[in-house]
Amino acid sequence: MAEKGNISIHTENIFPIIKKFLYSDHEIFLRELVSNAVDASQKLKRLSAIGEYKGELGDLKVKVAVDKEARTITVSDNGIGMTAEEIKKYINQIAFSGATEFVEKYKDKPDANQIIGHFGLGFYSSFMVADTVEIISQSYQENTTAAHWVCDGSTEFTISDTERAERGTDVILNIAADSEEFLEEARIQTILNKYCKFLPVPVEFKGEIINNPTPIWTKSPSELTDEDYKNFYKELYPFSEDPLFWIHLNVDYPFNLTGILYFPKLKNEFEFQKNKIQLYSRQVFITDEVKDVVPEFLMLLHGVIDSPDIPLNVSRSFLQADSNVKKINTYITKKVADKLAEIFKKERENFQDKWNDINIFVKYGMLSDDKFYEKAKDFALLQNIEGKYFTIDEYKDFIQANQKDKNDNLVILYTTDEDKQHAFVESAKDRSYDVLKLDTMIDSHFIGMLEQKLEKVTLKRVDAETVDKLIEKDETKESVLSEDEKTQLKEIYEKAINNTNMHVTIEPLSPQDQPVVITLPEFMRRMKDMSKTGGGGMMFMGNMPDTYNVSVNANHPINNRILSAQDDSKEKIAKQAFDLALLSQNMLTGPALTAFVKRSVELIEKD
């Protein structure tokens, strides 16, 4: 006999709220229904394991079927099933307290992120896409009758006896006119691939199992080979190159967390491929927005995190701020640091081979997290222009004897472009100085951090000054020019250059150094580098004109020649020497370059 009744929710406004506000993404109805079917299967397994169910489990499976002609989607399982009384208990009474208060609080707000997801509303997401929803269920319990529940999206329902050939449940959605897209098999296939790919019970669609019920993150690392990890990476990212290495996460106290994080090969600088880490809860896909769970600097990683202890809002679409989230974030940071330290210690050569691919992760982490810095400073590598790798402490020891200035500061020299700064690199090498390569986008920030963290250490780009000024020693270099000659030479160059952004000084450099050296002061260059990468408060520097130091070598023969040349030749030779300095730094272009070439021909012909 059929029974009619009202769903016990104390209000008739719950369905529009579910449809409009709690579930903004309508496709998740399928995730919820398939997840419920999986739960029904898992419950039966547990009852069997503890001896409360004596029957055969059979081939536990969830089936999804689309009937475009009948306009239905059916999700079926052969799990625990429900009696009519259980349907009335679990379906008819939406299990949360203070329903009226809940509705009043959220009915006018599209943002329901603060609601904890324990209200049993998953099933009701069906009404986002269906006019009428039916349940046909046969309990696992002996001597029970199958029940047929029907609801048209109002608070009224009917429930009656029916027949079902075997234990389990069918949920039948009669699709609404505005949701016909979900009657397309391709659309359903896409949703199943997204949300149900790793559910722990086989899910069948169009006669095929569409999921992997035992993904490798559910297994012990001791069971897995390198090939297993690589194959799973291909399963997640079919068109990606093999990862560099991976970290298997597995913790059960003080929270439950499993997963695998992969270090991918980055194809270009700061290739922020966000949403590459997938968050699951008991193998149900939740979101790929994991910025609160995973530290920002590890958002470049790929992989999977699965935790039932991450609090979600009622629609399971958003993370909520919680102490567990912070603990998980801290745990992941520590786990990554420990894994990198282990690889460095056990396989240093392998670590060095991969450094160019992973240095952006490490440096970004050191910049953004002090605890990570403390661990990473022992395995973060510096590479010099000879291709040798050093830890920070190893490098300090390596340059200790030769690269201290008169104030006992250790001076680390570096290049950001060895080809463009070649002349300066060679000058440094002539003094037996070592030069590092710091040529990635993040290095301008990394350099500043090192100076803050390391005592009595400064870093200078190799073209920031003449080599003797880069590392000032407690010694005096003599000039072959008198004070009058220096003043005269300065005036000649200033007139020849005719640019107020070029500050000319006469320096007693080595005769082997260039006749003119042009440098952008370290402070100004750093500010400009920071502004390019969004350094706080430095954006204005990008619009300021460059102001250069022009160091004229008092001890170079060309500058003696300028002083002794005819008046009409002095400026021409000075201009030529200055343009040579510009040319060495790729700063000579356009009409100035054309004039330089013409002048060079004239000087050669004259000689």
Write the layout of secondary structure elements.
Elements: E1 3-6, H1 14-22, H2 28-49, E2 62-67, E3 72-77, H3 84-92, H4 99-106, E4 130-138, E5 146-151, E6 156-162, E7 168-175, H5 185-195, E8 203-205, E9 208-209, H6 226-236, E10 245-251, E11 257-263, E12 277-281, E13 284-287, E14 302-306, H7 323-346, H8 348-368, H9 370-376, E15 381-383, E16 389-391, H10 392-399, E17 410-415, H11 422-430, E18 435-437, H12 443-453, E19 457-461, H13 467-470, H14 483-497, E20 502-507, E21 516-519, H15 522-532, E22 548-553, H16 557-564, H17 567-584, H18 590-606
Parallel strand pairs: 2-8, 12-14, 17-18, 17-19, 20-22
Antiparallel strand pairs: 1-6, 2-3, 3-7, 4-5, 4-7, 5-6, 8-9, 10-11, 11-14, 12-13, 15-16, 21-22
Helix pairs in contact: 7-8, 7-9, 8-9, 8-12, 14-17, 16-17, 17-18
Describe the structure.
GO terms for molecular function: ATP binding; ATP hydrolysis activity; ATP-dependent protein folding chaperone; unfolded protein binding. The structure is a single chain. By secondary structure, this protein is an alpha+beta fold. The protein folds into 4 domains: 3-208, Heat Shock Protein 90 (2-Layer Sandwich), CATH 3.30.565; 216-346, Ribosomal Protein S5, domain 2 (2-Layer Sandwich), CATH 3.30.230; 380-470, Rossmann fold; 483-519 and 542-606, Up-down Bundle (Four Helix Bundle (Hemerythrin (Met), subunit A)). Residues 95-107 and 109-120 have low confidence and may be disordered. Helix 7 packs parallel to helix 9 (370-376) and helix 16 (557-564) runs antiparallel to helix 17. The relative contact order is 0.07. It contains 18 helices and 22 strands.
